[in-house]
Write a structure and sequence with these properties.
Layout lengths: L1 H25 L3 E6 L4 E2 L6 E10 L3 H4 L1 E10 L4 E3 L5 E2 L5 E5 L2 E5 L1 E2 L4 E2 L6 E11 L6 E14 L4 E3 L4 E6 L14
Parallel strand pairs: 2-14
Antiparallel strand pairs: 1-3, 3-11, 4-8, 4-12, 5-11, 6-11, 7-8, 9-10, 12-13, 12-14
């Protein structure tokens, strides 16, 4: 009887511990790349501009305690070229620089040389245009980060995954429309 009670308690504890994992994962910070065109684009005879946005999701600012981050933003193809100058960079950090391809942001009080965390849950870090070449070959083109480091006030990394976004360039479809005069 004692072993049944112990087994039951262990089973309940195990089930409760599994329920906590998704909650913890949902509250962790993350970085995402989005595109103004969506994930699929048809090449044209002229170059096309796509705006890429890099977002910081910070669901629980007081727990993540984010004070700085840095990464390099890159493209995997010479047919999708990132501009060297951003169209927007965040003002939610006290110091922000983008020197293509490197982005660095930190909250630092220069007077006391102490850091302070951001309090926002969603931050648009960077918007940058890229040019898709005229008549780009169909295929997958990727914008991605390298060296992602999101750090807290104790100089610990709270996020380090490198997000990417794949743009699918698809050939134009050719439809033939025929009108039957008899019908």
């Amino acid at each position: 009887m004692k072993s049944r009670v112990t087994s039951l308690i262990l089973a309940v504890v195990l089930m409760l511990s599994l329920a906590v994992v998704p909650v913890a994962a949902a509250s962790a910070p993350s970085v995402e790349i989005t595109a103004s065109t969506g994930a699929t684009i048809v090449p044209k005879e002229t170059p096309q501009t796509i705006t890429f946005t890099v977002l910081l999701h910070n669901p629980q600012p007081s727990q993540s305690d984010i004070v700085g981050l840095d990464f390099s933003l890159k493209s995997n193809s010479s047919s999708l070229v990132l501009d060297t100058v951003q169209s927007y960079k965040t003002d939610k950090f006290s110091s922000v620089t983008y020197n293509s391809p490197k982005f660095v942001a930190i909250n630092l009080d220069i007077g006391s040389l102490s850091t302070f965390p951001i309090t926002e849950q969603e931050v648009t870090l960077l918007k940058i245009n890229a040019t898709l070449a005229a008549n780009a070959e169909p295929g997958q083109y990727k914008i991605y980060t390298e060296g992602m480091a999101v750090s807290n006030s104790r100089a610990q990394q709270v996020y380090s995954s490198n997000p990417s976004l794949t743009i699918n360039v698809v050939p134009p479809t050719k439809y033939t429309v025929s009108f039957d005069k008899n019908g």
